[in-house]
Design goal:
Layout: H1 4-12, E1 18-23, H2 29-40, E2 44-50, E3 62-66, H3 71-94
Parallel strand pairs: 1-2, 2-3
Amino acid sequence: FDSLFSRQVEALGSEGDCLIAFSTSGNSENIIQASISAKQQNMSVIGLMGGDGGRLKPLVDMPIIVPSTTTARIQEAHMLIYHWWCEMLDEVADD
Protein backbone atom coordinates (compact mmCIF):
# COMPACT_ATOMS: atom_id res chain seq x y z
CA PHE A 1 0.00 0.00 0.00
CA ASP A 2 2.89 2.38 0.71
CA SER A 3 3.98 2.38 -2.94
CA LEU A 4 0.51 2.51 -4.50
CA PHE A 5 0.62 6.20 -5.48
CA SER A 6 4.37 6.43 -6.07
CA ARG A 7 4.14 3.72 -8.73
CA GLN A 8 1.39 5.70 -10.47
CA VAL A 9 3.47 8.88 -10.32
CA GLU A 10 6.46 7.02 -11.78
CA ALA A 11 4.33 5.61 -14.61
CA LEU A 12 2.23 8.66 -15.44
CA GLY A 13 4.14 11.70 -14.17
CA SER A 14 6.48 13.81 -16.27
CA GLU A 15 8.88 16.67 -15.69
CA GLY A 16 6.88 19.87 -15.34
CA ASP A 17 3.76 18.14 -14.01
CA CYS A 18 2.33 19.01 -10.61
CA LEU A 19 1.30 16.52 -7.94
CA ILE A 20 -1.31 17.67 -5.44
CA ALA A 21 -0.82 15.64 -2.27
CA PHE A 22 -3.51 15.47 0.42
CA SER A 23 -2.65 14.15 3.89
CA THR A 24 -4.60 14.95 7.03
CA SER A 25 -1.59 14.25 9.25
CA GLY A 26 1.21 14.93 6.79
CA ASN A 27 2.60 11.54 7.75
CA SER A 28 0.80 9.19 5.34
CA GLU A 29 3.58 6.98 4.00
CA ASN A 30 1.90 6.40 0.63
CA ILE A 31 1.59 10.17 0.07
CA ILE A 32 5.17 10.77 1.21
CA GLN A 33 6.46 8.12 -1.22
CA ALA A 34 4.41 9.62 -4.07
CA SER A 35 5.85 13.05 -3.31
CA ILE A 36 9.40 11.69 -3.30
CA SER A 37 8.75 10.02 -6.67
CA ALA A 38 7.36 13.29 -8.04
CA LYS A 39 10.43 15.26 -6.92
CA GLN A 40 12.72 12.63 -8.50
CA GLN A 41 10.92 13.31 -11.81
CA ASN A 42 11.30 17.09 -11.45
CA MET A 43 7.61 17.56 -10.78
CA SER A 44 6.21 20.29 -8.55
CA VAL A 45 4.37 19.17 -5.43
CA ILE A 46 1.60 21.05 -3.67
CA GLY A 47 0.83 19.59 -0.26
CA LEU A 48 -2.41 20.01 1.65
CA MET A 49 -1.81 18.91 5.22
CA GLY A 50 -3.05 19.35 8.75
CA GLY A 51 -1.38 19.92 12.08
CA ASP A 52 2.23 21.00 11.61
CA GLY A 53 2.54 19.46 8.14
CA GLY A 54 4.27 16.35 9.41
CA ARG A 55 6.96 14.60 7.39
CA LEU A 56 5.36 15.72 4.12
CA LYS A 57 5.96 19.43 4.67
CA PRO A 58 9.67 19.54 3.71
CA LEU A 59 8.99 17.45 0.59
CA VAL A 60 6.58 19.88 -1.06
CA ASP A 61 7.14 23.08 -3.00
CA MET A 62 3.97 24.73 -1.76
CA PRO A 63 2.72 23.63 1.66
CA ILE A 64 -0.87 24.48 2.50
CA ILE A 65 -1.35 23.64 6.16
CA VAL A 66 -4.64 23.64 8.05
CA PRO A 67 -3.58 24.46 11.63
CA SER A 68 -5.75 21.88 13.35
CA THR A 69 -5.44 18.37 14.73
CA THR A 70 -9.13 17.58 14.24
CA THR A 71 -9.43 15.28 11.24
CA ALA A 72 -12.91 16.44 10.24
CA ARG A 73 -11.90 20.13 10.29
CA ILE A 74 -8.76 19.46 8.25
CA GLN A 75 -10.68 17.47 5.65
CA GLU A 76 -13.41 20.12 5.44
CA ALA A 77 -10.78 22.79 4.79
CA HIS A 78 -9.07 20.62 2.17
CA MET A 79 -12.42 20.09 0.44
CA LEU A 80 -13.11 23.83 0.44
CA ILE A 81 -9.69 24.54 -1.11
CA TYR A 82 -10.13 21.77 -3.67
CA HIS A 83 -13.57 23.03 -4.70
CA TRP A 84 -12.27 26.59 -4.97
CA TRP A 85 -9.47 25.39 -7.26
CA CYS A 86 -12.02 23.56 -9.43
CA GLU A 87 -14.14 26.71 -9.65
CA MET A 88 -11.11 28.76 -10.67
CA LEU A 89 -10.17 26.21 -13.35
CA ASP A 90 -13.73 26.26 -14.68
CA GLU A 91 -13.57 30.04 -14.97
CA VAL A 92 -10.27 29.88 -16.85
CA ALA A 93 -11.64 27.20 -19.17
CA ASP A 94 -14.69 29.36 -19.93
CA ASP A 95 -12.53 32.32 -21.03
